[in-house]
Amino acid sequence: MNLKTTFLTLIAVISIAFAKAQEAGDCNVMLSIFAENAKAKNYDEALKQLEPLLDKCPKASAAIYQYGEIIYSHRLRKKIGVKEDNVQGLIDMLNGEINLFPEAVNVSKKKVKLASKMYKYGQGEQTEQYLMLEDVFTKDPENFTDPNGMITYFKLAEKEYKDKKIDLQKLFDTYDALTERIEQVQDERSTIIQELMDKKETDGSLTEAEEMKITYQEKNLKNYNIVMKSVNGTLGQLADCDKLIPLYEQDFNEKQSDEKWLGNVLRRLQSKDCTDAPLYVRSVKALHVLKPSWKTAYGLGNIATTTSEKFQYWDQAISLGADKDTQSKIHYKKAEIAKSKGQYGTAKREYLASNAAKPSFGTPFLKIANLIANSANSCGATPFEKRAVNWLAARYADKAGRVDASIKSRAAQTAASYRGRAPQKNDIFMNKEYNSGDTIRFNCWVGDSVRIP
Length: 453
Prior knowledge:
Blueprint: H1 3-24, H2 27-39, H3 43-56, H4 63-78, H5 83-100, H6 107-120, H7 126-139, H8 147-162, H9 168-203, H10 208-235, H11 241-255, H12 259-271, H13 278-290, H14 294-303, H15 307-319, H16 324-340, H17 344-357, H18 363-373, H19 383-403, H20 408-421, H21 425-430, E1 439-442, E2 448-451
Antiparallel strand pairs: 1-2
């Protein structure tokens, strides 16, 4: 008897066993056979057993709906059977998990998935889908992490705005809250990558599980970068400076004493770097009179005309509790000013502080890499050490690309360029002072070390 015949015989035996259990009304046996088929990815056979289970034992176990979700998702992905039937089946499974077994599943994540699938396959009303996602995002943002759900949520918000069901300010508020959530998740993932990369530099290697963790988190960051681009693209020109400024200018005289309104104006203009506009200056000054805060201090720093005044206001903004995103921007601006004055050590510290405030912001690492590479001739006592500086520059460029998917390609090219300038295998072999695995410390402004590969 060949393998195919044995398999078919086994399937037949299992099918008979299921039929007998169905006839006897034995839910436990039916569920056990169904689950075994689903685990073995015998989805066609499991699908035949799903309907009798739903009919006779709808509340027997959450596994019925969890495996059912997997089965219908598989059929949709592989384009097996009638699409409409599979879509309805998937929606029924998700509803079953949410409504019958809320204690066994993450209800918020399942609701996000349900709304996203309904939107994708054109099931239900647009407003119903939007309100479902709005409810989860408002009440349980910690579990609002699915990239597809995020993209769907904002697309639906824009459609609601175009249908005049929400106003422009609500759309902006949704954009602000959603992008803030995306950045939070990006920072969480980037922090994990940085910690593991630092461990690798210190210990020389990582476990296979740790390397896989980095790869997984890099994939996450790539997906969230796609989400951010999609959200920004969906908002489109509505949030550009030339659209925002006239929108707010028409109400300024009437609302210049409205603290909340001025705060919204500043947040929106700052997020889009519309800080050169006269409206921005007027709004900052008006809000500073009403209620001095880190926001007004930051704004006054942006419009200050001297470096010392800028730094004074920016430092005040941080001391008054500026959010992490703004802290990152402040440190980055201070680093750029220090770099322009040739104060590279100060610039490096400020770039690092910028990333520390916003771990998914990789550009500061790329800036540090460039500064280090350009200092090769002034760091290191020997020609070998001077070239070795490029290994350190490459390390920072690598880190930039791994924590920030938006610059991954540019960072990889930069790192490769620096490694090309560093000593090669033959140079290491011929060098009498250092061997592979040794550490070189640079005592110039860089104040860092690198392990020879």
